[in-house]
Amino acid sequence: MATAAVAEATRRPSFWRDWVLTVDHKKIGIMYAVTALFFLIFGGLAAVAIRTQLALPGEVVLKPDQFNQFFTMHGTIMIFLFVIPMLTGAFGNYLVPIMIGAIDMAFPRMNALSYWLYLLGGIVLMISPLMGNMPDVGWTAYPPYSIQSKGAGLDLWVTSVHILGLSSILAAVNFIVTIFNMRAPGMTFNRMPLFVWASLVTSFIQLFGTPALAGAVTTLLFDRHLGTVFYEVAAGGDPMLYQHLFWFYSHPAVYVMVIPAMGIVSEIIPVFARKPIFGYHAIAYSSVAIGLLGFIVWAHHMFVAGMQVEAGIPFMVTSLIIAVPTAIKIFNWLSTLWRGSIQLSTPFLFSAFGFMFLFTIGGLTGLFLAAVPIDLHLHDTYFVVGHFHYVVFGGTMMAIIAGLFYWFPKATGRMYNETLGKWSFWIYFVGTNLTFFPMLLVGYKGMQRRVYDYSHTPGLELGNQIATIGSYVISFATILVMVNIVVSLWKGAKAEANQWGAQTLEWTVSSPPPEHNFLEMPVVTSYPYNFGVSAAEKKRFDDDEAVKA
């Protein structure tokens, strides 16, 4: 009997109990990552199909209605099913509890529910081809066309957005409660890792912004099926109401995709520069400033929607001001690198060279679009597409891959292939600029976005063909990253507990971490980026922080 009891106790749990029913935040984070990467494949394939069509003016790679469906699915998948879940679901779930010294999230079962709702929302969207047609209204779903769109595709899109929104709200509440109430002894707000600051701000954005999106798509569904007239102009409705509700969420959602990426970069740069992060408080509080300002810039998407020019001026001003806290981060990262003992590892290349360079291009082009007179000419052109992709793909995707490689040893206990990682960076970097810089040029020449065939407009062929070649290069780089990860899971060298010599709490435990993160409760006595700081300087800083706390 005793032998049987020991065997039962040591028996490995089944896959069902170990993963499907898990409430361990680390396993939930891994499931988010795997699922998001799975959706990335479909979103990427849709993008390649779109670019192939645009490289061949007059040819029929996609029919016009298929083109609309593909760019709708591409935008929706990449934003709602890949970027946001990867940053907030995968990185946030896996890292935040360990970084603050907690054994798990505040509400573990609600955390698991958030993941399964995310998966369900993705499945609902992805079955639309089986129901007759995919949504064809773009990821914004503007009325009046979205009211008139036929088939179940848009209804499934709305249902999916609702489910994903509920998942986001539950996750946001969980993160906020966890960060406020479950920090280890000594973990004051001014000692929190910068990624935790980013996750906290992001959670508040999701909590207050997502209901506006739910209201927009719900009223849209009512107009389609219940005879209401929220957006029917002929009956006294106003389509601009939808745009106000949609962008009140969706512009802050850009920062849901950007602020955690900035948090990842803030963790990586000091480690590989072997220097304390320059301006810790400025970087932390600039995230708060971006989160607050993000809610008062939404109407810069509507300068050409019929809004009075005078009404756009305040939004132009706030859209320009929001560049200030972003610039603070960039200059502080550069100051951290100045005279640092830089190690050119793969995570560093993707974060410092990749994110900072590409995101800066995206930010600078955004300043043009924030100005009303310029936006009147560039709005709805490929200049906007290029700007958006430099920010959300060129910047955020670089940070995501940097984070994958940086924390891969911690999560798996294995090292990735460094040579292959560096090759993937340079291929990504070249491919990203080949794809999106020509979009700025053809947009400046007047090429409208959401255009299926531009053969009637001369001078746009070369730019589109270069952009399409770039999309193939990006696809190849993505395959290299995935191959590197998959192969390294089985054949990678064994990783050390603190592979990079970092100072945040997740690197104080084994790789991978134990079930409840810590064998004993950690006590935090210092700031997490004290690279190269003398004992006297460290004590003086910690004493100052103790006074502030």
Automatic annotation (TrEMBL):
Pathway where this protein functions: Energy metabolism; oxidative phosphorylation
Subcellular location: Cell membrane; Membrane
Alphabetized UniProt keyword annotations: Cell membrane, Copper, Electron transport, Heme, Iron, Membrane, Metal-binding, Respiratory chain, Translocase, Transmembrane, Transmembrane helix, Transport
Superkingdom, taxonomy of origin: Bacteria
Catalytic activity: 4 Fe(II)-[cytochrome c] + O2 + 8 H(+)(in) = 4 Fe(III)-[cytochrome c] + 2 H2O + 4 H(+)(out)
Domain Cytochrome oxidase subunit I profile: 19-525
Mode of membrane association: Multi-pass membrane protein
InterPro entries registered for this protein in UniProt: Cyt_c_oxase-like_su1_dom, Cyt_c_oxase-like_su1_sf, Cyt_C_Oxase_1, Cyt_c_Oxase_su1_BS, Cyt_c_oxidase_su1_bac
Segments traversing the membrane: 30-50, 70-103, 115-134, 154-182, 194-222, 246-265, 277-299, 311-334, 346-368, 388-408, 420-444, 464-490
PROSITE patterns: COX1, COX1_CUB
EC number per UniProt: 7.1.1.9
Family matches, as Pfam families: COX1 (PF00115)
Family stated for the protein in its record: Belongs to the heme-copper respiratory oxidase family.
NCBIfam families named in the record: CtaD_CoxA
Purpose: Cytochrome c oxidase is the component of the respiratory chain that catalyzes the reduction of oxygen to water. Subunits 1-3 form the functional core of the enzyme complex. CO I is the catalytic subunit of the enzyme. Electrons originating in cytochrome c are transferred via the copper A center of subunit 2 and heme A of subunit 1 to the bimetallic center formed by heme A3 and copper B.
Name of the molecule in the record: Cytochrome c oxidase subunit 1
Gene: ctaD
